[in-house]
Structure formats: structure tokens, C-alpha cells
Amino acid sequence: MQPTNLHVDITPTGHYEVWIRTVDLVRLKDDIAQNRSPMINATHKASLSKLYEARAACIYKPDGKCIGMRNPERFHLLRERFHEAQKNGLRIYVFSCSMSSL
Q1: Range of the domain at 60
Q2: How far is the C-alpha of 5 from the C-alpha of 16, rounded, in Å?
Q3: Please, are residues 23 and 56 in contact by the beta-carbon 8 Å criterion?
Q4: 50, 28 in Cβ contact below 8 A?
Q5: Residue 53 in contact with residue 25, Cβ under 8 Å?
Q6: 32 CB contacts (<8 Å, ≥6 apart)?
Q7: Is residue 47 in a domain?
Q8: What is the DSSP string of 4-55?
Q9: What is the pLDDT of residue 85?
């Protein structure tokens, strides 16, 4: 059983998909990132991160798991360039190999 990320995973569709949606993300506050102590104790209090929403192109596997995110503008640019390369004759060959052969 694989864990589910309730913020981005979807109901499985059986296909690879890209959805543009609003997702919740976490950002460390600047003072936390710069002055973080490795220990939490009476003198070093734990600080909460800042939550925010952002638009993202989420890439999904057939099982509904989000395997990556890009901002929508970058995704559309990559998609356009991919289709342009295909029109110009670029062929992509997909093959499988085991990690032990590398």
C-alpha cells in the first residue's frame, strides 16, 4: 500500500494525466530557514511553517499519484516545445533498463 497525499493525489483514472489545479504548499518562514536550531527545547522553540496556495500542473500516474508538479506556464512551454520537436522529426525512443545494468 502506498501513502496518499490528500492535497494532490486523485482518484485513479487508469491513464497518465496532467491537471492544472490549486494546491496547498508549505514554505519555511525566512527567519526559520536561516536561524533553525537542530534541537527543539526550552530555548529553541519549534516554529510553524507558512502555508500558501499556488496554481500547479500536477502530473499523475494511472494510479492517481502525483509524480511531479510544474507551474502552469512552464508546463505549457514544455508541451509546446515537445510537439514542435515531434513535428520537426525528433523521435523519442523509450526503453527499459534495470538499475543493476547501469
Answers
A1: 17-90
A2: 17
A3: yes
A4: yes
A5: yes
A6: 47, 49
A7: yes
A8: --TTT-----SS-EEEEEEEEEEE--HHHHHH--S--SSSS---PPEEEEEE
A9: 87
Q: Is residue 36 domain-resident?
A: yes
pLDDT tens digits, 46-71:
777 788 899 999 999 999 999 999 99
The predicted structure's pLDDT at residue 99: 41
Average pLDDT over residues 74-102: 73
Q: What is the mean pLDDT of the chain?
A: 79
Residue 44 covered by a domain: yes
Distance CA 25, CA 7 (A): 9
- Cell numbers that stand for 81 in this block: 516545445
Q: What's the total number of domains in the chain?
A: 1
pTM exceeding the 0.70 threshold for the entire prediction? no
The answer as to whether 24 is a domain residue is yes
CA-CA distance, 30 to 13, in Å (whole number)?
Answer: 39
Q: Report the pLDDT averaged over residues 72-82.
A: 93
